[in-house]
Here is the input.
Amino acid sequence: MMKKALLGVLLVLPLMLKAEVDKLAVTDWLTAIDDGLYQQSWLTSSGYLQSQVPENIWVSSLSSARSQFGSIVSRELIDSKTLSDLPKVPQGDYTVMIYRTTFTKGTATETVTFMQTEDDWKAAGYYIK
Here is the structure.
């Protein structure tokens, strides 16, 4: 009986760790954006995002978009979905998170998409409105 319980824990543990890695990766990536490190956020994003948006466009677009909101005050996760099939992107494992974010100049909704790569979870999309 103990072997079955241990096997159950060993099978569940990778799933729990995968979810934690996802949250940590998202937090680190959003912190880079919050700190104005837009080039770093592009460099640490997925190859897919990098192939869709050139670095200079990413940096200038984020700089323009985020300057409208000011500094971050708080961020609350309001929805999260794990999907394997999204329109117009390669098939794979994705996590789409929606945040209600308060800034010094107002409130916005941030949608962040991360994808599972060979190594870890990396950003595949970011939208703020």
